[in-house]
Design goal:
Blueprint: E1 2-6, H1 10-22, E2 28-33, H2 36-45, E3 50-54, H3 62-72, E4 77-82, H4 87-95, E5 100-103, H5 109-130, H6 137-145, H7 153-158, E6 168-174, H8 177-185, E7 191-199, E8 203-210, H9 215-232, E9 237-239, H10 249-264, H11 277-295, H12 299-315, H13 320-338, H14 344-349, H15 353-370, H16 376-388, H17 395-401, H18 406-417, H19 421-439, H20 444-450, H21 456-467, H22 471-476
Parallel strand pairs: 1-2, 1-3, 3-4, 4-5
Antiparallel strand pairs: 6-8, 6-9, 7-8
Length: 481
């Protein structure tokens, strides 16, 4: 348990600190300060489980500090310390939700040891009680999957879900140890029957009834409550509308997850509906293309392909669970085949699409550093060609791009790669065309355009000459592979 001591008297702070260090429990003093202001500065960077705060301090007194802590760090326990056996102080502290009120002259090693052990046991019981709903995750996931699953409040109660058939909403956030602790401890007078569930490996979902019935006031208070929740949660918090019938639970949860996805992808405008089956198929196509690139050891192209996959997911509001799981499985395969150690944890920890792309970018950089097959100049040329092959680029264009004389570049390129410039460019285009034929539903005309060909017939003839079969014959293999 992490403890912060706040008292303007140095001897008192030292005395309490020494007693805590001598206690039998596993306690860590993260700070010992003389003012409420300094205490709040520490709490911005390290959140204590317990604050021991003197009531009578100059400038910001203990009651003012208590009020701030309960507003911004509601899951932190606060024990108020005073030399005054004064009921008014105690009543004020209790009104501001102090967790205990202690006279300094009562403090002794035994007293403090018992006090801290009781506080730790209380927090542990509270965590276990609040986390009981995680045992119901299987039923919750089933509820989200099934289109025809009928249920009522009795069915929910059987599975330890105590949501009532009245006003409620759902919220979705990123699953992490810190977020679990914060959302479990989050309390608001507006909420009751709070339930928290893991949604696959990526999200947590909170559902809760609302205590207010006046719709205008309730919406305003709900907005304030969600704002406070977002202040303590890492990453986006997606929220549903307020619903009034329990049979709309699935709709509320899916709406919250959809809202979370939009925030994760940095989308401003809401979108209606869920991801279609076609879009899920296209995600599978992206994954299939990635596995082929891995089998062909085209690792640098793999990461550009994954960037395209993320862009597609963002453009179509694909479930974060589906995107992260796909990336995890692909990169795990890449790690086994390449000998590299991909940052799989970074994929799961990402709080928005920018962090996700940065994580992929870092892995791409490591792969590029490892796999420097050519000189810096030729590597830059290959990278430019792989990024612009759909355009009408020439040897002169690429030579100019890397600041080399065209003739010198042509000789050097052939020497290092074993291909003439035109042959290498055609190789890139043909391999990409074959990948698109096998992994997407794009038409031959669309694929020709995407690989730098303006004429379908010329594209088909070039493809057949390169692979020994025409594009339609290659496409037929799609359902076999």
């Amino acid at each position: 348990m992490k403890i912060l001591i706040v008292d303007d008297e140095v001897p008192i702070r030292k005395y309490i600190s020494q007693m805590i260090l001598n206690c039998s429990g596993d306690y860590e003093i993260i700070g010992s300060v003389g003012s409420g202001k300094k205490a709040l500065e520490i709490m911005e960077h390290r959140k204590p489980d317990l604050v021991l705060a003197d009531i009578t301090m100059p400038k910001m007194n203990g009651l003012e500090l208590l009020e701030k802590i309960k507003e911004f760090y509601p899951d932190t326990d606060v024990f108020m310390l005073t030399c005054h056996n004064d009921f008014e102080f105690a009543r004020a502290a209790i009104k501001l939700q102090a967790d205990n009120y202690i006279l300094k002259d009562e403090i002794s090693p035994v007293f403090l040891d018992n006090l801290l052990r009781a506080a730790e046991e209380k927090r542990e019981k509270s965590r276990k009680k609040s986390m009981h709903q995680f045992e119901s995750s299987a039923f919750f996931i089933q509820l989200m999957k099934e289109d025809t699953l009928l249920f009522d409040s009795y069915d929910l109660e059987k599975h330890k879900i105590f949501l009532k058939d009245k006003e409620f909403f759902a919220a979705a956030l990123t699953d992490s140890r810190e977020n679990r602790e914060h959302i479990v401890a989050f309390k608001s007078s507006l909420l009751e029957n709070q339930e928290i569930f893991p949604y696959y490996d990526t999200n947590l979902v909170m559902i809760a009834n609302l205590t207010k019935s006046s719709r205008g006031q309730m919406q305003e208070e709900l907005y304030e409550t969600i704002s406070k929740l977002r202040d303590i949660i890492d990453g986006p918090v997606g929220v549903s509308m307020v619903y009034y019938r329990i049979n709309m639970l699935k709709q509320a949860v899916l709406e919250a997850l959809n809202s979370y996805s939009r925030l994760y992808y940095r989308k401003r405008m809401p979108e209606k509906g869920r991801v279609t089956a076609d879009k899920k198929m296209e995600m599978q196509d992206f994954a299939g293309g990635a596995y082929r690139l891995i089998s062909e050891k085209k690792y640098r192209r793999l990461f550009r392909h994954l960037d395209e996959m993320v862009s597609f997911a963002a453009g179509n509001n694909v479930d974060i669970y589906l995107l992260k799981k796909s990336l995890h499985d692909i990169l795990a395969d890449y790690g086994m085949k390449s000998g590299m150690t991909p940052d799989l944890e970074g994929i799961h920890r990402s709080m928005d699409v920018e962090q996700l792309l940065q994580c992929l970018g870092n892995m791409h950089s490591l792969e590029s550093e490892k796999g420097a097959e050519y000189s810096e100049a030729v590597s830059a040329a290959v990278l430019y060609m792989e990024s612009n092959f759909e355009k009408n680029i020439s040897l002169s264009d690429v030579a100019k791009q890397i600041h080399l004389n065209a003739e010198y570049f042509s000789r050097r390129f052939k020497k290092e790669t074993g291909y003439k410039f035109s042959e290498f460019l055609q190789k890139i285009r043909m391999e990409e065309a074959r990948r698109l034929l096998l992994t997407t539903v794009l038409s031959v005309t669309e694929i020709a355009g995407r690989t730098g060909f303006n004429n379908d017939s010329y594209f088909s003839a070039t493809f057949k000459k390169y692979f020994g079969e025409n594009p339609n014959e290659t496409r037929k293999k799609r359902d076999i592979m």
